[in-house]
Specification:
The chain is an alpha/beta fold and 182 residues long. The protein has a single domain, classed as Flavodoxin domain (Rossmann fold), CATH 3.40.50. The chain is built from six helices and five strands. A five-stranded parallel beta sheet has the order 2-1-3-4-5, with helices on both faces. α1 packs across α6 (159-178). The chain is globular and about 50 Å long.
């Protein structure tokens, strides 16, 4: 299987969020055929379609779109804000979805993983993210009680979760290889 480049998106601006730790754990447990690049999204100016319509998109939008187009798949690690997505992630989705007809997400294999300290793994955020990505086929994972899964250094210490994450990433690698982006 040829190596595939996968973009990782963490939907938080915090320095050590649970979903960043989980994202790093999933990536570390992935097969060698997947190469990861974490993509920052906090620097993106708010999306305004008028700028695209005028042919003057923000430099950061264009750079972001070009970067995402260089990947073969995407991983979203999200948390829930008020039963929905964090604004920083929703903005990145909008930036990548425009201009109309040129969405960087179209046909790209992806995965949605939501992580929460609560029991239901942030179902609302997972559901809303999948609704926003209707043109991106994306398997999903919900990870609840996540605060107790990591050691003091932020490493995934729960063996059952490590086994599940490794299996999930193996299946993702096979799926990405079978469904090339664009």
């Amino acid at each position: 299987m040829a190596n595939r480049k996968i973009a990782g998106f963490v939907a938080s601006l915090r320095q050590q969020p649970l979903n960043r730790n989980m994202g790093q754990a999933f990536m570390a447990l992935a097969p060698a055929a997947l190469e990861f690049g974490m993509q920052p999204i906090g620097q993106l100016p708010f999306y305004n379609q008028d700028r695209d319509d005028a042919g003057t998109p923000a430099f950061e939008w264009s750079a972001f779109r070009d970067q995402v187009l260089g990947f073969d798949g995407v991983l979203f690690f999200a948390l829930q804000y008020k039963r929905s997505l964090p604004g920083v992630l929703k903005n990145a989705l909008e930036v990548g979805s425009h201009p109309y007809g040129k969405s960087v997400w179209n046909g790209m294999p992806g995965v949605v993983v939501t992580v929460s300290p609560g029991a239901i793994g942030d179902f609302g955020a997972n559901h809303h993210l999948r609704q926003s990505l209707v043109r991106l086929p994306a398997p999903e994972a919900y990870i609840g009680a996540a605060a107790g899964l990591f050691d003091a250094d932020g490493r995934l210490a729960n063996e059952s979760t490590r086994t599940c994450a490794a299996g999930f990433m193996q299946k993702f690698a096979v799926w990405v290889a079978a469904n090339p982006a664009r």
